[in-house]
Amino acid sequence: MKSVALPLVVLIAFAGYTVSVMLQAEQSLIDFGISLMSRPDTAQVVIDLYLLAILAGIWMYRDARKRGQSGWSVVPYLLITAIFVSVGPLLYLVVRGFQDRKKSVGASQRI
Known about the structure:
The chain is mostly helical and 111 residues long. It contains five helices and no strands. It has one domain.
């Protein structure tokens, strides 16, 4: 459960904060993105985040393949990452942690 606890807490907290902010926003997510990209200083931050998101996507894909899963299994996480950046990798870590836990429980029951 240790491998799930931290990403789960961060995912719940950040997703809750994101929903709260989106409900209070005075503009759409697209308008917000356009306004961020209209200035060099904020565009730099957005570009930096998306470079990190691309690296996270590559890691998720490679990790899934290393675990014997299809590359297609990460598509939902990549789509979420494309919109909400850190939510996709956090969700991937949570699901991965629960899958690992399920495998280890199953292995210990066979012993």
